[in-house]
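Shipment paperwork, digital attachment
Item: protein structure file
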Amino acid sequence: LSGLDAAEKLSELYPRMKLIFVSLCAGSEIRTACLEMGGHAYLQKDRLQHELIPTIYRLIFRMPWKASGIP
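Attachment content:
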């Protein structure tokens, strides 16, 4: 089961759940696919230490999410 498949199933079962994708891949195609599949955020593993808590905070308080390195 891939992360995208799991996200699709989780979104169906728990539509209010906020999904955060974590990956080694930095490509915009993968990020776009994750967000289109119902993800609320996409984090690269090499930035996880710095971005996970702020991302969770933004999701809890419904603040807009911005991908790192994207203006």
